[in-house]
Amino acid sequence: MSTNGNGNSGNGNLAQVDASVSADSEVGSAVSGRIAPPPGQLKKSDFVSDQEVRWCPGCGDYAILNNVQKVMPELGVPREKIVFVSGIGCSSRFPYYMNTYGFHSIHGRAPAIATGIKCANPDLSVWVITGDGDALSIGGNHFMHAIRRNLDINYILFNNRIYGLTKGQYSPTSEFGKKTKSSPMGAVDYPINPLSLAIASESTFVARSIDIDVKHLGTVVEAAAKHKGISFIEVYQNCNIFNDHAFDSFAERSVRTDRVLYLEHGKPMIYGKDRNKGIRMNGAHPEVVTIGENGITENDLLVHDIYLQDPSVAFMLARMEQPDFPQPVGIFRAVERPSYEELMVDQIEAAIAKVGPGSLEKLINSGDTWVVQ
Amino acid sequence: MSTVIEPPVEQTEKNLEELEAVTIRFAGDSGDGMQLTGTQFTNTSAVVGNDISTLPDFPAEIRAPAGSLPGVSGFQLNFSSQDIKTPGDQPSVLVAMNPAALKVNLPDLEEGGTLIINTDGFTPENLKYANYASNPLEDGSLSGYRVHKLPVTTLNMNALKGNVTLSRKEIDRSKNFFALGVLYWLYDRPMENTLHWITSKFGKNPELAKANEIALRTGYNFADTTEIFTTHYTIKKAKITPGKYRKITGNEATAIGFVAASQLANRPLFYGSYPITPASDILHELARHKSFGVKTFQAEDEIAAVCAAIGASFAGQIGLTGTSGPGVALKQEAIGLAVMTELPLVIINVQRGGPSTGLPTKTEQADLFQAVWGRNGECPAIVIAPATPADCFAMAIEAVRLAFKYMSPVFYLSDGYLANGAEPWAIPEISDLPKIEVKFASDPANFMPYSRDPETLARPYAIPGTPGLEHRIGGIEKQHITGNVNYDPENHHLMVKLRQEKIDRVANDIPAVEVFGEKTGKVLVLGWGSTYGSISTAVEKLQSEGKSVSAAHLRYLNPFPKNLGEVIAGFETVIVPEMNLGQLCTMIRAKYLVDAVAFSKVKGRPFQIREIVRKVEEYL
């Protein structure tokens, strides 16, 4: 293939070069991946694109991808109506691997792109895939505003507490004092809690899960998809290259039941392999108690209510963390509020109901006009 | 409102002289209502059949301290019985409501010009604010002008006191209508147009409506009876092509132009914007047009505004974002994404003085380089620029046509002068407007996201919701045809050239640049954007004196019209007047290897006709 031309792009007929490039061997597989699935029930494999997945072996992203692909058929949304939008970072490669519409955009801006997509076509199921650096550093502003507007989009933040794609600098969720290439004496940045921020931004759906907790992650993703309005999920995701074992202290299988609190709506907050640990309120503060000790029974425990309009309890739960508390996962909050795009469409319909569909003739003839005879 | 012109009512007692054109500047505190006064005078002048051109000039501060120099707000209007294209070089009449307004604007008033002064504004305090050591009304310093002193505030108070149930402060606010009444008499304008406006504007507040009406009528009658004015003037109707006209500012024309484009393309318009002077009026205007399906999104920042527009484009709507220079600087990375993903997008830049915050309310043309070259990588985009306020309408439609046809971002470079300046616009017939074709891909069998139209090199437009066309796009380099992520060096080189070639081919699809005057000669004055009025008027003047001068005006800046090189070659000297340090000039020199001359003015103000005349004369 010759692309040298004469150095002046204005002169060469580049369309003629097409043939030589289209002979590339990758083209064939690309075509097969794009053929529409047969009508009827979709399978997980229908959501697997033809692109080779290029995350590091052992990355937590694989588990999340697998889970999302598995949940997709359950949603009953045709594949062509699904759009995955991402920013920049390891997790943001995600859309390439989904056989849906996808937009791998620029650093931090996925929520803004998704906003335009959803407003333009509210019929689409729109997913934002982002990471801790993408969402909370460079994209912090869009994070807050996309959430407060309550667009009906699903927003999954892969939190590995590190910059992976740029090879291991501390991130806005890295623990205080973390030693990395860019913080050899320890980070002096205090970390941000993604759920606190989402709740403070008036998120109507807030949840958390763990990459390797496959079943739990699936149910959370499905619940998020069904929530009308913004659905924010933080997924603890292990970066086995630059921040391995970041979540082992509670996520590792052997300790998980003792150190993770699975929040379930309508149920008392109980955890532990003996199901005898729980959370109760002591004045304004949560505390860990043991059922059967000091006369504590299940009735003393806090009962989880995802529908509370007041976000205080959800916020309190979001602040609980190891080692003082079990690490809570599950749905923290799921409340109803009209979505942004719905309100936008309502205003358009109201305007049309009031003055009729816009007339260009009338528009250009409005204002200060006069006739010259 | 539509009015058929009727001859003005004859006033007979005093002399009535005929003038060809008047340039009048209204100046006062930013709270004095000078923009409103100017606008009303303009509307009436348009309705009586004069040609008009206006230049508002207001401070960046909403309410600078009353009486202070930075708080002066001005509005210049040129109205004429001849065809005019600029708001006039120098006002022949200055209305000054206070000492600060006089101080700021007097240097612009032509020698022997007329001054109409509100003497009530000349208090010791205000004189001090304006740094006058002595009162210019008394110290003889205005002897070179025809000065008319009117105690406007007092006269207005006397007229209204007892007639309306308003406070003194509220009554004082109507004094601009008194001044307007005086000027209506002085320039023989009917009051009906403004009376009608007062009724519709203040309908909900009858006392205010009454006050303004009395103020206007009293001002008019006062001027008629007082001995201060012995003569008044009439300006005949201009010879304007018959038809229906509308007074329009550039920002209005831009906004309704994009609504029209949406109708012509049969695609909804999505406008993502963050408030910024002088572009915010476009957001305000578009937000009013929801019945056209227009979606306006006031974003959290400039970046979100453009990104949402890109998202809307991806989803099949007209993605439009609007801002001024600093906002474009923030949007550039996202515009690069639109270049890479080859999505339609229109970016309105209502240019203002820069760099940084610069002069937010003043005009400039210094963002041409930013539009053409302002992104990382080889990142070509189409760049166009309307030439007059009314031209903003046509160019908005053109921007959308090109964005869809070439699947490319299009920069639409307006500026503060076009945005706020007004002129008569011959309202077009809808049937004469161009149709905009939007082709969506739909056939899965032959779909490749980065295959190309053999003529335009545009890639197919496959929007979410289309079965079988699921594909992924993004900012990483794309493999030719498949659109897959690709890092191959040969592929990158090819794609860089393809993206450039696609933009270059737009030259096949745009009109040739026209030459006003002879096709060869001594001097070609080459301009772009809002300098059109001054350049064409200056060149016409020189041509009428038999000088070998022609003009050409670029509405397409990237790519250039195909015949531009040939046009340039016909002249000994090419002069490029720009409100920057020579950006178009640099591009012309680089592309055509000619010793083009930059004529720069970067003062936040448009070129005067005579400035261009003088510059050209140096080369004749």
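qc> Residues 340-355 of chain A form the longest helix (16 residues).
qc> done
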